[in-house]
Write the structure tokens for this entry.
Amino acid sequence: MTDFLIVISLLLVILCLGLPVAFSLGATSVLLILIYSLPIKVVGATMFSSLESFTTLSIPIFVLMSQVLLDGRVGDDLFNVMNAWVRHLPGGLAIGTILACAFFAAITGSGAATAATIGMVAYPAMVSRGYDKKFTLGLLAAGGTLGILIPPSIPMIIYGTVTEDSVGKLFIAGVIPGLALAGLFIIYAVWKSKKGGYVAMPRTTWSERLEITSKNILGILLPFIIIGGIYSGAFTPTEAAAVGLVYSLVLTVFIYRTIKITDIPKICLKSVPTSCMIAIIICAALLFGRVMTLLQIPQQLTALVVKHEMSAMMFIIVMNLLMLVLGALLETVSIVLLTMPIITPILHALGVDTIWYGVILTVNMTMALVTPPVGMNLYVINGLFPDIKMEEVIRGVTPFIIIMLLFLVVTIAFPQMSLWLPSVMQ
């Protein structure tokens, strides 16, 4: 345990110096290599091999696809389609917003992209119809979190890379929980809308619904192509990302014509910072995990847990409490990469299904996206329009955080909600 305390103390000191997470992990790893006289070649070998994974290749492709869809304004069309079908219901605009977030999440795998894309069109529409501003902002911030739970999910790809679990199974495992969480958001939105007395919009005719749906059917089909292809075994998650990217380019350039061919280089450049940020974190975190392995810290912690006869459920509860704290301080990719190399051996020793734990962790990370002070979606929504204040976003999203916390308990209590679809796929 002495080595573990030294590692954690050193990492906390470096983090407190204000270094980004990736550089903090890298610096800690190098210092530990020097302190314990480990072979220095570990640095180059690990950081180079960390990005060789075929699965990891899907991350920049999904990021680029997300940027193509963002610039191609596909999210606007999705919102219009969903709104046409449900706007006459109590809280119809709010329901349409959540459904649009769920569909866009199933296309991009990015929480921030979902919040930004749907928020740009849904916020003016809801506020102009008399919806409470704080409720609207909270709904958009929370709806964006569906991007990392409903597949494809970038955090799930990273989780599968670290734990060596099937990313396809992780994706499928997230379908029912993702839809269930979206359903809870809709139930709360309807209740809030009835309580607030928000006036429903006029019902659209069946001809109008069919017209707008048929006009945008190709965009609606994209998540079914990606998830259906993975589920059927037609292609791997990485191949699914490539298929989705090509489909998105054809859709936005040649069919919708919202993007010009000359815009593609700029769109590629826009996606580079996000991809590079994730790549640097992956390199540093896997180096940190490699050093932990060389110091046998995961083995020591596993032995400690087994020695004290901690049950699997108790360990999961303790880890989720830790994740809630980390979620307020770090972003999701860093949390997954920081914790999983250490606790994966413990999960195996306790007999915990790592697919199930991956869904639990992702549900926990949905809260991290909207938990101050670091919640990414809070800043995305705050930056949409000049009249939005951070205080309003935080107050509006608080009820949704409570819903997500309760849903986390349900996810832990009912494993089959996450494991049934993967068992069918198997």
Remarks:
- The CA atoms of residues 35 and 71 lie 48 Å apart.
- Residues 2-425 form one domain.
- The chain has one domain: 2-425.
